[in-house]
User: Which sequence fits this backbone?
């Protein structure tokens, strides 16, 4: 999403430069040393950029993507006040649970920057609601999640009838939970002639493979990491995109799959309903109900007319509401309003 935002600003006529490569990430809630190191490094960056901007001129604004309690922006807010330029965030977040310890301190810094921002861009109503509750005075604006659909629209919609596909990193937490639930749901469908392509890799690769070892080897096709072009080509040979999406913020892969004309089967949870319109571009099922998830897959695999209609609607859904051009136009207009 950060790369897409840069591309959007570039398309809207702005020159975008990465001001700092400082990695602001505090992994542990009790790591006081890491916080002190981060503060020291941030101060060094502030001094460097102050000198640079004094000599060469300050930018029109500072844009920060995804500041949160583990990864605050300790540079931009200071410089924006010093040089009187707007501060804008995208996908900032606030957690009611992170109010203590070093994460609490860092979140307080995030809250201050959100309060002072000219505008905070939210990609989902869920995130907007969270920020409104945590930072009532914040200026919030909704920009729907978006993708560049070009590479996915180049392919015709698939005529395959039983090939499932999913794309996800293999890591702990929500991603692993989704793999667990997907494998459990597919156990209820062994009477159907489906195959599943899995695109992704990560530290839990062997654990994910073990989950699917219960199925005949010819049913599961392992692709590892793939380029977007290769994924687009794979989507064009597939029937449905299946991924529970435990805790998904929204999931750009859902948008990519729909742009390729793949109806989505996912959970009705977190930010997923922001990108998948249930009953129109896919089917969203209750969280952790393996039988209903399986039933949704079986329903579309067995109903050619419904599946083909939903395929067309999935592509239309992304083109109308989540396309790159619409986002670039909206973001460009927003930035022009706030540049002094």
Assistant:
């Amino acid at each position: 999403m950060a790369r897409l935002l840069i591309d959007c600003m570039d398309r809207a006529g702005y020159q975008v430069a990465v001001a700092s490569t400082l990695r602001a990430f505090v992994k542990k809630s009790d790591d006081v040393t890491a916080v002190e190191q981060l503060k020291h490094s941030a101060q060094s960056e502030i001094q460097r950029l102050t000198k640079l901007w004094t000599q060469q001129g300050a930018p029109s604004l500072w844009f920060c993507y995804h500041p949160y309690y583990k990864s605050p922006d300790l540079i931009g807010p200071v410089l924006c006040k010093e040089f009187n330029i707007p501060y804008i965030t995208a996908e900032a977040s606030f957690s009611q649970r992170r109010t203590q310890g070093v994460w609490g301190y860092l979140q307080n810094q995030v809250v201050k920057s959100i309060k002072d921002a000219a505008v905070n861009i939210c990609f989902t109503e869920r995130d907007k609601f969270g920020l409104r509750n945590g930072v009532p005075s914040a200026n919030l604006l909704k920009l729907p999640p978006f993708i560049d659909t070009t590479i996915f629209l180049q392919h015709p919609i698939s005529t395959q009838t039983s090939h499932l596909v999913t794309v996800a990193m293999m890591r702990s937490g929500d991603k692993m939970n989704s793999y667990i639930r997907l494998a459990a749901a597919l156990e209820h469908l062994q009477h159907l002639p489906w195959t599943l392509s899995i695109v992704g890799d990560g530290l839990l690769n062997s654990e994910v493979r073990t989950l699917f070892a219960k199925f005949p080897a010819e049913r599961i096709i392992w692709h590892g990491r793939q380029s977007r072009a290769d994924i687009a080509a794979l989507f064009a040979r597939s029937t449905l995109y299946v991924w529970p999406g435990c805790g998904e913020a929204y999931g750009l892969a859902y948008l990519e799959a729909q742009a390729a004309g793949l109806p989505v089967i996912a959970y009705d949870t977190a930010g997923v309903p922001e990108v998948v319109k249930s009953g129109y571009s896919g089917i969203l099922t209750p969280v952790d109900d393996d039988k209903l998830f399986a039933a949704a897959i079986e329903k579309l695999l067995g109903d050619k007319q419904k599946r083909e209609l939903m395929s067309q609607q999935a592509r239309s859904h992304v083109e109308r509401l989540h396309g790159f051009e619409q986002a670039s136009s909206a973001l460009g207009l927003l930035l022009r309003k706030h540049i002094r």
